[in-house]
Amino acid sequence: MSLPKVSVIGAGQVGAMVAEHIAIRELADIYLFDVVDGVAKGKSLDMMEAMPHWGSDSFMEGYTVGPNGENYENLKNSEVVVITAGLARKPGMSRDDLLYKNVDIIKSAAENIKKYSPDATILVVTNPMDIMTYATYRIISPKKHKIMGMGGTLDSGRFRTFVAKELGVSVEDVVAFVIGGHGDDMVPFVRYCTVGGIPITELLPKEKIDAIVTRTRGGGGEIVSYLKTGSAYYAPGVSVTVMVESILKDKKRVVTSPVLLDGELGKYYGADGLFVGVPIKIGKSGVEQIYKMSFNEDERKLWDVTVGHVKESVDKVNAYLHL
Ligand code: APR
Prior knowledge:
Layout: E1 5-9, H1 13-24, E2 29-34, H2 39-54, E3 60-64, E4 80-83, H3 95-116, E5 121-124, H4 129-140, E6 147-149, H5 151-167, E7 174-175, E8 178-179, E9 187-188, E10 194-195, E11 198-199, H6 206-217, H7 219-227, H8 234-248, E12 253-261, H9 263-269, E13 274-283, E14 286-290, H10 297-320
Parallel strand pairs: 1-2, 1-4, 2-3, 4-5, 5-6
Antiparallel strand pairs: 7-10, 8-9, 10-11, 12-13, 13-14
Helix pairs in contact: 1-2, 1-8, 3-4, 4-10, 5-6, 5-8
The structure holds adenosine-5-diphosphoribose.
């Protein structure tokens, strides 16, 4: 059976979840890469042995990558590469320490993608996601339409979930999305949130909507507070899979995710040269369209705050990478 090739760098919680979902849906053959010896190999073998029960012929293989790029040649001919490799924040580690450590990890992944699979579409999951997507782009540039982050898709799913639960309706009938950075200042876009076409502003009082917005913004942290070690991976895994499926099948899904805002759009959004989450269309060619949203005064303020935070971190990364 001939299936497209998807590679996943980082065979941790999110990476394994992505691999499993793609395999269950028989979307691709999946190749996992991880720095911890045997992890990618063991997990891919275990998952592949589950496939007879799902009726899927997706092939899976795992490789341990070394400090000098050992085994990365197996990335070749990937249609999509998902980067989930990264470290979680440990006690005593500042946010900036984490930022630089993950930039180093992204750098080695991106350089090897560029070397072995230069035509792949790249989906970045590693946090801080907007910044890691930017770093990937700066290392691989100029393939801007082939590089995107995943955050907005995940955050929009959380927003839809909370709206549906509050109103007691099916999640299927809630259209809602989140733009901006994938952090505490992300912008759940209330004015365009509808339930069966009805704006939520006509269905819920302001206090309830505000509470949903706050919970959406803190959605990742809420899960970390329960898990204590580790962060969300079920919803992130599915969010990545939905995007990979749209690319492989050329479905032209419209999702929100961090993409490069430059040129006229960059100026309009006040985010020239940054990766920030906006609605996009994704298909075979990667990012096929970036939509221009109109903001009222309050929305523009929220947008400017989130863009400002992305820019602060990007400036740090530029200094760190001597860009
Ligand atoms: N090359 C390849 N893999 C690496 C490297 C590297 N240089 N450095 C770390 N890894 C691997 C780890 O060994 C681990 O298996 O990345 C994996 C990360 O997995 P987890 O720690 O389980 O983290 P996960 O929950 O999957 O989250 C991954 O996504 O949501 C974000 O904030 C999250 O940045 C994190 C990423």
